[in-house]
Amino acid sequence: MKAQDVMARDVLTVVPSTKIEVAIGLMLQRRVSGLPVLDAKGKLVGILTEGDLLRRKETGTSDRHRSRLLSFLLGPGREAEEYVHSNSRDVSDLMTSDVISVNENTPLDEVVTVMEKKRVRRVPVVRGDVLVGIVSRQDLLRALESKLTGQPHVSASDDAIEQALKATLAEPTWAAGSNIGLTVQDGIVTFNGFVYDERTRTALKVAAENTPGVKGVVDQLVWLDLTTGMTVP
Questions:
Q1: Three-class DSSP labels, 125-162
Q2: Contact present, 156 and 149 (Cβ < 8 Å)
Q3: Rounded CA gap, 127 and 42, in Å?
Q4: Which is it for strands 179-185 and 44-49: parallel, antiparallel or unpaired?
Q5: CB–CB of 194/178 below 8 Å?
Q6: Between 20 and 30 A from 45 (CA), which of 36, 78, 170, 173?
Q7: Are the C-beta atoms of 54 and 126 separated by less than 8 Å?
Q8: CB-count burial class (<10 Å; 0-12, 13-18, 19+) for 168
Q9: What pLDDT does residue 220 have?
Q10: pLDDT tens for residues 48-90?
């Protein structure tokens, strides 16, 4: 899937001259945590998020107590910048100008990687410099829900299930080091043998449940604790 497959296209936006009280009202009314900022030509020039509004004089959260030495080292420009951020009422003074964005054809795994690395909740989607949508965590959840609820029941022979599951288990390293056997009868997968990490047991169950045609899983595995030499059914 790509960004264009899950992005919201009806995006609420503001302009740099918007007053922050108006922007806050829109965020509360529409229940969004961020607003893209566009110039007169529709170009994405910034984004205003809840995080940009945390340090404000109105709520008594703007004071940053630091030593005189640190203030001297940071310079008056830094303090002036912080004053503007906590006192200005224009979106242009509070918004993040260095916006992280993706294009319509960006694969979803790359979008998620951007979100994780940059620690952001939403990523604007642009065509050139023009905003065409936005992908938020909520959009990803909706896509996941749609995939999970839309999966049809698939019939498969026991042999096909066994071959598919063995192929799946041949790839991950967590399965390679264990002594695992499996059989399939009437769509029911039965695991037997030894695992050396209790977490492998859960992973095997998940792998089986995600194999088309599987109707159930029976766990007859024994956990061999290598630190104590004890076995746990």
A1: EEECCEEEEEEEHHHHHHHHHHHHHCCCCCCCCHHHHH
A2: no
A3: 11
A4: unpaired
A5: yes
A6: 78
A7: no
A8: middle
A9: 93
A10: 999 899 888 888 887 666 556 655 565 667 778 888 888 899 9
Question: Which domains occur in the chain, in start order?
Answer: 3-148 (3.10.580.10), 158-232 (3.30.1340.30)
Q: Tens of pLDDT along 136-183?
A: 998 999 888 888 887 777 788 999 999 999 999 988 888 876 688 999
User: For the sheet containing 188-195, what is the strand order?
Assistant: 179-185, 188-195, 216-224, 231-232
Alpha-carbon distance of 118 to 104, in angstroms, equals 19
Instruction: Kindly state the tokens that stand for 79.
Output: 């303090």
Can you give the pLDDT at residue 148? 81
Q: Report how far residue 96's alpha carbon sits from residue 52's, in angstroms, rounded to the nearest whole number.
A: 8
Q: Cβ–Cβ contacts within 10 Å for residue 160, how many?
A: 14
Residues linked to residue 48 through DSSP beta bridges, in sequence order: 35
The total number of residues shown for the chain amounts to 233
| Strands (DSSP E) found in the chain | 34-38, 44-49, 102-103, 122-127, 130-136, 179-185, 188-195, 216-224, 231-232
Q: Is 82 helix (H, G, I), strand (E, B) or coil?
A: helix
Burial of 26 (0-12, 13-18, 19+ CB in 10 A): middle
Instruction: State how far the Cα of 36 lies from the Cα of 157, in Å rounded to an integer.
Output: 51
The tokens describing 88, both together, are: 């200005």
Give the C-alpha separation, 187 to 183, whole Å: 10
CB atoms inside a 10 Å sphere around CB 184: 24
